[in-house]
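Technical annex, item 7. During the second reporting period the consortium partners agreed on a shared format for inverse folding records so that results from different sites could be compared directly. Each record opens with the tokenized structure and is followed by the designed sequence. A conforming record, contributed by the partner at site C, is shown below for reference.
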């Protein structure tokens, strides 16, 4: 009985924390920035949104938390009254797909096949949340006078990540393969991995030029130099943590040593130095086999 009461108390605390987070999220404002040509960017509390507006109508990449859908709709109307035709998802997480249920009622959602698989798993999911067009490796949408290329980069942040390239505008949306001011996160239980993440960002770098503007999953509008700095941070910190692991350091010892001071600027409320060390160490550590 005591264990049951403790469990109920813990669940109650989680519920209260979630409600508190929802209130803070609801208070977030959505700001719009013109990137270049037909491309705009919306920033709020969740993932950044890319917007393409032109003669063909409106297309968006990602759509924030569900509780911010109304504010996203208002921000889109502030950019244009054109109808929304397509929604592209960079991956399946709710801070990027929370608006799918509303936007998917009238627009076509396109995403990697693993996005559909993962969004289908809740038994009572709204069918409007699901992509109706999926792809395995890549796809192209020809819209508003340019090719919009979707390329899957597997097993990094998750197994569902894509980068969206607006080829005529020379703008890319990297989803959560780019954080401009924070250590990122990755999810091994969703087939993400640190080595895959580092490789994917390196591969994306090869597809950018010095004039490309990049919309990050979280953070400010970026350039290739920002992506390079992010990649160098990951390469450097992963090697630093791996060296300690190879030398027999425990996780506690690795956290106690920390990271070189030049990497401290990447620490944030999203992922602290300790959390980053824990995530990387845990993913690099050899797994026990039976």
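Designed sequence (site C submission):
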């Amino acid at each position: 009985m005591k264990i049951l009461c403790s469990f109920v108390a813990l669940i109650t605390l989680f519920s209260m924390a979630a409600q508190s987070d929802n209130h803070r999220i609801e208070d977030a404002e959505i700001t719009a920035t013109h990137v270049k040509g037909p491309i705009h960017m919306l920033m709020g509390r969740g993932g950044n949104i890319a917007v393409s507006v032109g003669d063909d109508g409106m297309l968006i990449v990602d759509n924030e938390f569900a509780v911010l859908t109304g504010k996203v709709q208002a921000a889109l109307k502030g950019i244009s009254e054109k109808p929304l035709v397509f929604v592209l998802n960079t991956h399946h997480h709710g801070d990027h797909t929370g608006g799918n249920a509303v936007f998917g009622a009238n627009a076509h959602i396109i995403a990697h096949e693993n996005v559909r698989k993962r969004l289908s798993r809740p038994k009572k999911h709204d069918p409007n949340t699901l992509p109706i067009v999926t792809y395995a490796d890549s796809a192209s949408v020809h819209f508003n006078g340019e090719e919009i290329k979707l390329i899957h980069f597997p097993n990094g942040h998750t197994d569902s990540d894509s980068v969206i390239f607006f080829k005529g505008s020379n703008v890319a949306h990297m989803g959560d393969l780019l954080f401009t001011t924070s250590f990122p996160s990755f999810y091994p239980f969703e087939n993400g991995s640190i080595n895959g993440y580092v490789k994917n960002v390196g591969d994306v770098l090869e597809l950018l030029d010095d004039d490309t503007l990049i919309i990050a999953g979280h953070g400010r509008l970026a350039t290739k130099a920002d992506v390079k700095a992010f990649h160098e941070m990951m390469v450097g910190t992963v090697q630093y943590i791996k060296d300690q692991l190879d030398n027999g350091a425990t996780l506690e010892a690795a956290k106690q040593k920390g990271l070189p001071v030049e990497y401290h600027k990447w620490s944030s409320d999203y992922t602290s130095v300790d959390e980053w060390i824990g995530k990387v160490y845990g993913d690099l550590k050899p797994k026990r086999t039976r």
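The domain at 25-225 is CATH 3.60.15.10 (Metallo-beta-lactamase; Chain A). DSSP finds nine helices and 13 strands in the chain. All partners now use this format for quarterly exchanges.
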